[in-house]
Amino acid sequence: MRIGIINDGHRKFANLHGLPLAASYWEGAKRGFNFINWSSQYTDYGINEITAFVSSQENVSKRTTEVISIIHRAGIKFIKRLYEYDGIDVQVVGDFSYFPTEVQDFLARCAEQPKLKDSKLQVNLLINYSGHWDLVQAARVAVVDSQQERLENLDQKTYRSLLPSACIGDFDLVIRTGDRHCLSGYPPWQSNYAELLIFNKLWPEFSEEMFHQAMQWYYQQDRRHGA
Fold first, then answer.
1. How far is CA 49 from CA 3, 140, 187, 215, in A?
2. Domains and CATH numbers, the chain
């Protein structure tokens, strides 16, 4: 089972509880660790892949440099902690060119890590990511291929392999927290036939009870994949 998480609500959580924004994002990171632990603990749910935002390109473009720095410091700390887990394959996807050189180098090293062959769980983190950017990057590669007279061989499977997010499997379920009911630039190809569940809670409030509610709700759905 592949789950996507649109983990929204950090700024509102900070405002509601009088917390510094950095503390709110770290509370959100803790919910991420919890979600990973629950996924590993409750094996009957069959969760083998989780995808979540660190930041979207739209978010980065609207925030101050200070706020973006807070978000990404929490994200990098989260990634480093993930590498301490056994049996977890960590993948990072996004446009890293926005960042200072040392951050670019760190994320590039993460992206170049070979996939674990016997991983129990794959965790994908979207960093300065946009669904539009994802599709455009693949189109640019396809255009280069067309100059090599390969475009006539382009089919859906081939195009999907050109996406920067090609390492991410198609979602079975997308969970969104916060007070908005939209996908917010989430990976469009992988979201195509996903079930969408919205919690009117903020991501730092996400609980084990909500985790079980989401799993039970999903398994009650009549999955038709567009049919």
1. 6, 28, 14, 14
2. 2-130+176-181+195-219 (3.40.1180.10)
